[in-house]
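Task: encode each sequence below as structure tokens.

Item 1
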Amino acid sequence: MKKKKKKNIILAIIGGSSILTIACAMVILICVLMIFDFFGAKLTKEKVQNNAEYADAYTSAANKYLKDGYVPLQRILYFHLEDPSLTIDTLYAMNQNKETKTAKEISSVCEDQRVKIMGACSDANIKENEDYLVVSTGHFNFPLDKNYTITSFFNEQRVIYGKSNVHNGWDLAVPAQTPVYSVCSGTVYKVNYTQQENIPYDQSGNSVGNTITIKCDKDYDETYYVLFAHLYPNSAKVKVGDEVNHWTEVASAGTTGHSTGNHLHYQVFNSKWELLDGMQLIDFNLSKTNLDGFNTGLNNNFNYSDALINP
């Protein structure tokens, strides 16, 4: 009887030790996972740019929701990397403020029960990823006033004519000769029309096509350069030096240059000719009929002596 009781005590000790060992192992595993940023995965430039697997889902969501406010892919990946069961579509809608037509502040998103307990919503993770989570303040109007389809977004990894590249702007598919508008108050900086037929690259072999660049410096603390590409032949309604305002019609969309079909390529640089996400600068409340005093006319009294440079 004593031997059996002693055996039970030994088994209890062994069992207790096993539980203790497992508990210790779990604590160590959690610590290791936290060190490797498993909870609330830290966004990096590489994670944002290595986005091919998310491209189709993000483009689909943007086409559904963009008119009610822009939510960048990096904001969506911030949550999706931690919980892949939350779809790109769901997260776009969750991060959007339809009343202001902007992305929500991250603190507001983290009040949602679906993400509230995530590591992504911890103060430490928000602080570590703050460069990727800022809400943009719009300066520009949208460059089109017709229906469009997003076919490629800024920094998208893609394959065009058999070659991989990272897209440096936004592609907005529209019918040929759809009007294109200035997004800002500024000056026409460059007009470069090299193609007379509205045919894509596989027929023309012309990688340059027709472009217009606008220098936006009238109403902003910073200077921006906005490039419109693939424009329809002979469609330019402005010349170098012309002053433009919000919603000044400058040209029409086509498929000239390195293009696969009719669309507008919208691309933005800062004053140092560094690429920016041009969609971050758009105020989706600034419609053609709601300009709050902006003048849409064209002033041709600009001094034409300004030199041109190639970006």
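Item 2
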Amino acid sequence: MKKRSKLLAVLMSLLLVGAMLVGCGDGEQAADDPKPKTQFISIATGGQAGTYFPLGGAMAEIFNANVPGVNATAETTNASVANISLLEEGKAELAFIQNDISYYAYEGAEMFADRGAVTNIAGVATLYPEVIQVITLADSGINSIEDLKGKKVAVGAPASGTEANARQILAAYGMTFDDIQPDFLSFGEAVGNLKDGHVDAAFLTAGLPTAAVQDLGATHDIKIISLSDAAIESLTSEYAFYAPFTIEGGTYTKVEEDVTTVAVKAMLVAKAELSKDLVYDLTKALFDNLDKFGAAHQRGKDLTLDTALEAMSLPLHPGAEKFYKEQGIL
């Protein structure tokens, strides 16, 4: 009798435990579980020697620390044009892209004319001026764009924003890639080839000061070629995204004179399919931590609420739009 009572007690205990487990099933666990589903964010940047990469790294750290459930990483890429494809194909969620390249993609113009418009992209913020710099060594004998004729010239990585800028600047002088010996190199590769004498000059489009140019100037005397007033007028009248820009003397070691050139704007662009709430949270986190963004690179200090929509060349993502409306910017 005692054995039967003990057995009954054990069975009742097991039933009670089972009932408790059923009561704490998937529904209640999901309600009580504070850990959100992980959202992986790939941020397409550019070459490691440019400006996009360090700023993208800082952005990833800001998102990871301030947006619950986000796992963001900065990826090296061939920059603007390549980044459009990464967004379009769903291989990146955010990207650094020049405002002119974003416009061409959305409108299906220029280098996107054959492949068609890319419409699943949306603007988040414009970040800072990206300056077109034509770099050579001080003793190269190159003093103008016309002097590039017949020379070996690094014109940017294939399908990059720098390549497009180089082509357009040459066109302002009545020149094409046929007039030079073009070498399609990234920032780092261009600097290495300048150091080794494998190219005579290089086009670079990036924020100032550009790490690749600083690196070159640390071991070689360099020269930055000014654009003529006529060429600047031609570029700014034909392309709405170019603006005159002066590189002040002293920006780089031993480059003491001002250099006249043009600039576009770096943008942060999102895949349009990202949720409104997610992009809102990412945008808010970025602007709540501008000090950390600015600490990664001098150009990060250019981003402010007052300038975030300057030269915006895409429709805003609804999440970013919500944030700006809350801030009274829209």
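Check on item 2: Strands lie at 39-44, 70-75, 94-98, 121-137, 152-154, 181-183, 201-206, 222-224, 243-247, 259-271. The first strand starts at residue 39 and ends at 44.
End of task.
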